[in-house]
Amino acid sequence: MKKVLYKMELVSSEEIKRDSFDFFLLAGGSDFRAYQIMRLMKTENVSINKILLFDFLERVHDIDKNDPYYEYQEVGFKNIFPIQCSIKATNSCLQNLIPLESELLAAQKVALDISCFTKPFFFYLIKLFKERFKVKELTIFYTEPQSYLFPRGIFSSYRSSIGPITILEIPGFSGFETRGGKRVLVILLGFDGDLSKEIYEDISPSETLVVNGFPSYTPKFKDISLIANEKLTSDKDVEIAFSRANNPFEAFNLLEYIKKRNGNAFINIAPLGTKPMALGACLFALYHPDVRVVYPLPETYEKVTTNRCWNSWRYLIPLNVT
Predict the structure, then answer these.
(1) What pTM was computed for the model?
(2) How do strand 20-27 and strand 110-113 relate by DSSP bridges?
(3) 7-148+307-318 adopts what CATH topology?
(4) How would DSSP label each residue in 229-272?
(5) Which of 46, 171, 187, 245 could pair with 41 in a Cys bridge, judged by C-beta atoms 3.0 to 4.6 Å apart?
(6) Pick from 78, 98, 94: nearest CA to 86
C-alpha cells in the first residue's frame, strides 16, 4: 500500500476562519455538541455553498419545536438543506442526495461533522463519498463531550440505546469469510458493557481482542470503560490493547498490526468506542474490504447522551489514493 500522510489538529477560530467548503454535512441532534462546529463556522464567517443537515425521523419523533434539536435554525446560516433519513436504514438518505449528485461529483472540498451521527451512518456516508461521489479527501470534524450522562449516577448505568439489540453487518462492510478459517473479533470498547458481551456471544470468535481508549478524553473515562465491560475484560482469554481515544490514525495502525499478526484470519470489528476510534476502523475497513464491521442495532436510541462540549478536532482524510 502506498504511504499516506494524515493530518489531525485541534479546531481553533484562527484556523477555521481560513476554511471554505462546497458541502458541510452534519447530523441533527439534541446534544449541545451537535452544532458546535456549525456555530464556530458562523462566528468566523466560513464560506459554505450548501449545508446538508441529516434530519433523522427517530430523533424528531415526539419532540416539540423548542427542543435543542432545532437550534440549527437559530445559528444563522440560510443555506441549510435538510436530508430526511432514518437511523435504522443507513441508505435512507441516498434518494435525497441523488438530486445533488452532479454538484457532489464536482465538489472539491467536503466536510463531515461526525459528532452526532450514529457510527453505521457515518461509515455509510464515508464509503458513499469515496465510491459514488469520488471525493478525494474529506475534512472530518468531531467535538468531544465534556461528560456522558449516567442516569443513576453510577458507571454501569450508561445506555446509548433502548430496547432489544440486533447484531448486524454495517452495509458495505461485509468482508469475505473463508470456510473454516480462524475468526478474530476486535471490539473497540465503549461504556455500554452489555453491547460488547452480546457481540462476543453472537460472533463466537476463535480469538477476541478488546481496545480501550487510552489516553481518554479525561482520565476517568478509561476506567469507566473497563469497569462497564468487566464481564468481557475479566476473561483470561481476551486480550486488551489500547489506542488514543481521539486519534483515528492510531486506531488504524493498531488494526493494521492485528491483521498482520493474524495472517489470513477473518477479522470482525465492532466499533463501540469513541467516534474517532470508529473513524479509524472505518478507514481501515475501506482499505481492507475483506474485513467485516458489525454493530448492535437497538430498537431506538437515547435522544441525549452527553453534556456540553470539550475539544473539537479536525481530521484530513484522503479517500482515493492512487
Answers:
(1) 0.88
(2) parallel
(3) Rossmann fold (3.40.50)
(4) THHHHT-TTEEEEEE-TT-HHHHHHHHHHHHHHTTT-EEEEEE-
(5) 46
(6) 94
> How wide is the angle at C-alpha 56 spanned by C-alphas 99 and 88, nearest 5°?
100
Do 56 and 84 touch, CB atoms closer than 8 A? Answer: no
Sign of CA dihedral 167, 118, 269, 238: negative
Strands 110-113 and 183-188: unpaired
Q: Which residues are within 8 A (CB) of 74 and not within 5 positions of it... i.e. 6 or more apart?
A: none
Rg from Cα positions in the chain: 19
Confidence of residue 1 (pLDDT cuts 50, 70, 90): very low
Tell me the fold of 161-301.
Answer: Rossmann fold (3.40.50)
Q: Which residues pair with 183 in a beta bridge?
A: 266
The DSSP letter of residue 53 is E
> Which three three-digit cell numbers place residue 276?
474517532
With both helix axes pointing from N to C terminus, report the angle between 119-131 and 275-287 in degrees, rounded to the nearest 10. 40
Domain residue spans of the chain: 7-148+307-318, 161-301
Domain 161-301 in the same topology as domain 7-148+307-318: yes
End-to-end CA distance of the chain: 9
- Best CA proximity match to 52, nearest among 108, 103, 4: 103
Please compute the mean of the pLDDT values over residues 270-287 and round it to a whole number: 95
Contact indicator for 222, 212 with CB cutoff of 8 Å: yes
Q: Are 209 and 179 in contact (CB under 8 A)?
A: no
Contact at 8 Å (CB) between 149 and 264?
no
* pLDDT tens digits along 28-38: 998 889 999 99
Sequence-distant (≥ 6) Cβ neighbours of residue 282 within 8 angstroms: 122, 123, 126, 127, 271, 293
**Cell matching residue 274:** 469513541
